[in-house]
Amino acid sequence: MISIKSKREIELMKYAGHINYLTHEELAKYIKPGITTEQLDKIAHDFIIKHDCVPSCLGYEGFPKSICVSINDEIIHGIPGKRKLKEHDIVSIDFCVGYKGYHSDAARTYIVGTVSKEIEDLVKNTEKALYEGLSKVHSGAKIGDVSHAIESFAHKNGLSVPRELVGHGVGTDIHEDPDVPNYGEEGKGLVLKEGMTIAIEPMFNLGARYISMTDQDDWVIVTEDGLPSAHFEHTVLVTKDGYEILTGE
Ligand code: MF3
Ligand code: CO
């Protein structure tokens, strides 16, 4: 079921989204070689709690931590632990913040120190693709318009799109209907309506689009060829003429 949010619900989601943004800003200060991914998790967890919100990934379908930290070939759902960030890594940080039963979901990918030009372009173009997708959002647009804009931007830049991982509705659940794929056809799919809240989240691979799960745990999803992947995500409100980013300033 696709829900249209009331004014009150949107206000709660805006707060959840704003704290999500501030938590990302806080974490950005600590993205340096030597920090462990569980240190980042603790910083985020404490920051979210301090602002009267809940880290809604914690315990979600059994996820054991408050944030997902995915390094290099890890696409999403990396579990924080003893691993340290190191020079030349790229690291995606993705998490949900809840306030009074309403959620927000946002992700960013950081470059640790320096990386090759092609990896830098992977990160930059994945972020640009998020805005390419967003530019298609308004009441009356089709989800395929958003999906197609993201996919064609990937292909134009020689990147691939893992098809198994998609954006989604957000609200009282982290994952609600509808799916918002990062590939698709213009003019196809569900019609967006004012008051829907959706997470748009391009994930692009430098190599092939194929993914696999590692044996270590049930969560982290990696690229099959071991090449890096980047991820950017915002939760947005669909408005009459466009959209409002809820996980921004
Ligand atoms: N943005 C991630 C997603 O949409 C966050 C999920 S929370 C987790 O899958 F608990 F599943 F990690
Ligand atoms: Co998401």
Which descriptors would you attach to this protein?
single chain; 249 residues; alpha+beta; four-stranded antiparallel beta sheet; 4 helices; 14 strands; globular; binds 2-amino-4-trifluoromethylsulfanyl-butyric acid
Overview of this protein structure:
The chain has 249 residues and is an alpha+beta fold. The protein has a single domain (7-245), classed as Alpha-Beta Complex (Creatine Amidinohydrolase). Helix content is 27%, strand content 24%. It has helices at residues 7-28, 37-50, 117-134, 143-156; strands at residues 54-55, 68-71, 74-76, 90-99, 102-111, 167-169, 176-180, 197-200, 203-205, 211-213, 221-223, 229-231, 234-238, 243-245. Strands 7-6-8-13-14 form a 5-stranded antiparallel β-sheet. Strands 1, 2, 4 and 5 form a 4-stranded antiparallel β-sheet that branches. A hairpin with a 7-residue loop joins β10 (211-213) and β11. The mean pLDDT is 97. It binds 2-amino-4-trifluoromethylsulfanyl-butyric acid and cobalt (II) ion.
What is this structure, in a nutshell?
By secondary structure, the chain is α+β, with helices and mostly antiparallel strands.
